Amino acid sequence: MTDAPSLSVRHKRLIGILLLILVLGGIWYLLSRTPPSAPAFQRGAWNQATPVHVVPAARGSLDVQIKAIGTVTPLHSVVVRSRVDGELLRVHFNEGSEVEQGALLAEIDPAPYRARLAQAEGQAQQIQAQLDNARADLELYEGLWEQDSIARQQLTSQRALVEELQGSLKANTAQVEDARLQLSWTRIVAPIAGRLGLRRIDPGNQVSSGDTEGLVTITQMRPIAVEFSVPEPDVPALRRAMAADGELAVQALDRDGRNLLASGRLQTLDSQIDLGTGTLRAKAVFANEDTALFPNQFVNVSLKLQTLSSVITIPSDAVQFGSRGTYVYLVNPEENRAYSRVITLGASADGRVAVVEGLDEGDLVVLEGLDRLRDGREVVISERDGE
C-alpha cells in the first residue's frame, strides 16, 4: 500500500526534469537562429559591437633617445687635511660658502716651524763660512804646490775638505728648504675652487697630518658631471651616434622627469660593459652655472642619439605581439570593422614608435578596446576621437 504514492512522486519528478530539458533546448534553438541583423539585446554579448578608441598613424619627426637614471658626481672633490702637526689657531672660512683656489682656509701655530727654519738657516751659514775658509786655504795650497813648497798629500786633503763641506752645505740647504716648506704648510689654502662642506674641527684642537677626516671637504660645483648606465643593446647605437656627431646633447631632469634642470654634453664612455648589470657607464658634463645640479642627486637623464624625419609613428600601446610577430588592429571606417595587420617597427621614443612597414599615413589604429577584438569584429568608434 505504501509503494504506490512513492512511485507517483518519482514519475512526477522525472516528468519535471524532462520538461525543463525541453524548455532549455527550445531557448537554445531560438537563440541560435537569431539573425545577425537582430537588435543587440536579442544577440549574445560576444556578438555585440565593441567600442574602441582609435588614433591615426601620423607622419613626422621622431627623436631617438636613451633614457636612464643618473647620479650627479663632482669632477673634483677634496678633503682638506693638514700636512703638518700642531695646534689649529684660526679658521678663515664659512661652512657652505664658495671658495676660490688658493684661498686661505686655516692656520696652524707656526712658531715651532719658524724655529726649525731658523736653526737650519744658522747651520747653513756656519757651513758656508767653513766652506769659504776651506776654499781660501785650497787656493793658497795650490800656489804653494806650484812652488813645490808643500807636500802633495796636504793639497789633496784640502781639496777633499772643500768637497766635503760642499756636500754638507748642499744637504743643509735641502734642510732649509724643507723647514721653509713645513712653515708654509701651517697656512692651509684651498687646493681647488668649489663649495665648502661642514667644518669638522674647531680652533684650539691639535691637528695631525694623519687625520683621515680632515678639516673640511671642497666639492667642485661648476662644471659638474652626471654618471648613468646604458643598457648593452643600446651601446652600438650610442657609439655610432658618438662617432657621427662627436658631442651628443644630454638633458638632466628632476625625479618626476617633468622639469629640465640642466643641459650638457656626453663626455665619455667606460672602457668595458659591466658583466653583473649588462650596462655601460657613461659620463655627461654640465656647466651648472646656476648650481641646479647638486652632488649625489638622482636625476632622469635623456640622451638624444638622432632625429628621424618624415616617419610614420603610432602610440607604442597600440602595438600587439603574437605568434605572427608585431601587429596592430586597423578600423575600416566604411564597414566599422577591425582587422589585424602585421607591421615592422623601428625606433621608439616618448611613448611613440616608428613603423617601417605595414601602415600608411592616416590609417586608423585601435588604441583602446584591444582585448575584445578579433578579425572582422564590428566596432563602435568612441565619440572623443572626433573631438
From TrEMBL:
It is found in: Cell inner membrane; Membrane. Residues 117-186 form the Multidrug resistance protein MdtA-like alpha-helical hairpin domain. The chain crosses the membrane at residues 14-31. It is a lipid-anchor. The keyword Isomerase does not apply. Residues 311-380 form the YknX-like C-terminal permuted SH3-like domain. Residues 78-219 form the Multidrug resistance protein MdtA-like barrel-sandwich hybrid domain. NCBIfam families: RND_mfp. This is Efflux RND transporter periplasmic adaptor subunit. It comes from Halopseudomonas formosensis.
